[in-house]
Write a structure and sequence with these properties.
With 457 residues, the chain is α+β, with helices and mostly antiparallel strands. It has three domains: 108 residues, SOR catalytic domain (Immunoglobulin-like); 97 residues, Immunoglobulins (Immunoglobulin-like, Sandwich), CATH 2.60.40.10; 193 residues, Glucose Permease (Domain IIA) (Distorted Sandwich). It is 19% helix and 41% strand. The protein is built from five helices and 32 strands. Strands 20, 23, 25, 26, 27, 29, 31 and 32 form an eight-stranded antiparallel β-sheet that branches. It has a five-stranded mixed β-sheet with strand order 2-8-7-4-5, with no helix packed on it. Strand 31 and strand 32 form a beta hairpin. Helix 3 packs across helix 4. It is elongated, with a radius of gyration of 33 Å. It starts with a helix and ends with a helix.
Length: 457
């Protein structure tokens, strides 16, 4: 009897030990229970020419096998198009080519089934399995673009408008691109499928071309040139001799304020730093701020003329190309990308248009710098202010006094540096002070486009 009890206790102990052993073994990483991840969207698009990317990942075990099965949309047949044995990889991307019968049979959709197994010892050493079905939509037709209306001409340093339609069942991106690679956002206009944009020709570029670009989710692309009449413009070129007073005054102060403290710049290096390095960083900030078009859709757009100074007189030109010399030797050059206006000292600055303050702070050579957004990618800029009456993100009404003129930044006398930017590009302020120009180049284009869109033309 004692022997039988001893055998029973021993059997129970062995069983318990086996259970404990199985438990601890199951906790080992080789017995992990998580299936691989099939990192693919539920729907992919193809033109049947480019392979489809199949991405599988397993953070714990390595991937052992990936099988890909292609089903016709009507489920009448299935075809194994890939069966890859994988060795010691936790992350794999397979380029899968689709069979040619899609061309012949004009098939518009497939179902791609991906089956991935890992090398875990779970499931009696067979590993974990993941399955995913992906809808594959075939599209080998590029979007259609129809330009409805656009400005008759665009001037070097100026702006223009365009209204167009882009049509595609799988439309992905719509934008405008220039021959210099600059991108302008096209904003949905009035009805679905229609777009409008203001674009600008940088005054520093001698040539300009603009194209409407539309792409679909497959990558098919259409490109349509906007037929502007191009007007080149000669801007002023100035030769300026630097004086000791200027170098030892404004330049010295700005260099001391903004230049790195651990270098010893001579007076000419300080000027180059201010005129080139500092200017470039200030303008990069301006361009970044003014490149945004937050509207998801527009129906109307109108502006008052920009007349920021009462009785203001022009004292410096837009796009003036300035060459600086000292004692007859060339030192540096720069472009003056705004209009300088002056009246009396600390004159009130008027924002003729309502908008949102998107910048109100010191900005290097621009001194106290105010930027207001007026919609549809149009920004007004005010530099060298002595004081401000507005704060960042403040909404202002038209005819608001936003600050006072001054000598902050790289300004010798009290004046206002005034600019109008379209999607990050400086444009001739004089155009935005000309009622006839705005009507012909902006309003008429938008209104004509709207009439056509609404069927009222």
């Amino acid at each position: 009897m004692a022997k039988r009890k001893g055998k029973t206790y021993l059997s129970v102990l062995i069983l318990v030990l086996i259970v404990i052993l199985i438990f601890f073994i199951s906790r080992l990483s080789i017995f992990e229970k998580n299936p691989p991840q099939i990192l693919m969207p539920d729907v992919v698009y193809t033109d049947l020419k480019k392979p489809i990317l199949v991405h599988v990942k397993d953070d714990e075990s390595s991937i052992k096998n990936v099988q890909i099965i292609l089903h016709k949309d009507d489920n009448t047949s299935a075809m194994v198009i890939a069966d890859e044995k994988i060795s010691n990889l936790k992350d794999i991307a397979l380029q899968v080519a689709l069979p040619k019968f899609g061309y012949k049979e004009n098939v518009k959709s497939f179902v791609l089934e991906v089956i991935a197994k890992d090398s875990s010892f779970w499931n009696f050493f067979s590993g974990n399995e993941a399955r995913k079905q992906i809808a594959v939509l075939v599209d080998n037709t590029a979007p259609k673009i129809n330009i409805i209306s656009n400005s008759y001409q665009i001037e070097q340093g100026g702006a223009g408008a365009v209204v167009f339609k882009a049509d595609d069942a799988n439309l992905d991106k719509v934008y405008i691109e220039t021959n210099k690679g600059r991108i302008f956002k096209a904003t949905p206009y009035v009805k679905e499928g229609y777009y409008a944009a203001l674009i600008a020709w940088d005054a520093r570029d001698e040539e300009f071309r603009a194209f409407v670009i539309a792409t679909d989710k497959v990558g098919n692309i259409s490109k349509e040139r906007i037929r502007y009449y191009f007007v080149n413009r000669k801007y002023r070129v100035s030769n300026i001799n630097l004086t000791d007073k200027f170098l030892d005054g404004k330049i010295e102060n700005l260099a001391n304020q903004y230049a790195p403290k651990d270098n010893n710049l001579n007076r000419y290096e300080k000027f180059k730093f201010v005129n080139e390095t500092l200017r470039n960083s200030n303008e990069e900030l301006i361009h970044e701020i003014t490149s945004k078009v937050p509207e998801e859709k527009i129906d109307n757009f109108d502006l008052n003329l920009f007349l920021p100074l009462k009785n203001g007189m022009k004292v410096a030109d837009f796009a003036d190309h300035r060459y600086y010399s000292y004692n007859g030797q060339f030192v540096s050059d720069s472009y003056h990308m705004g209009l300088d206006l002056a009246s009396v000292a600390q004159a009130p600055i008027i924002s003729n248009n309502a908008g949102k303050v998107v910048f109100a702070a010191e900005n290097g050579i621009y001194g106290l710098n105010l930027i207001v957004y007026h919609g549809f990618g149009v920004y007004s800029l005010y530099g060298h202010c002595s004081s401000k009456n507005v704060d960042l993100d403040e909404m202002i009404n038209k005819q608001s006094i936003i600050g006072k003129t001054g000598t902050s930044g790289l300004a010798l006398g009290d004046h206002l540096h005034f600019g109008v930017l379209v999607q990050g590009v400086e444009t001739r302020p004089e155009q935005w002070q000309d009622k006839k120009w705005i009507e012909n180049n902006i309003y008429n284009v938008l209104n004509d486009g709207k009439k056509i869109i609404l069927g009222k033309n």
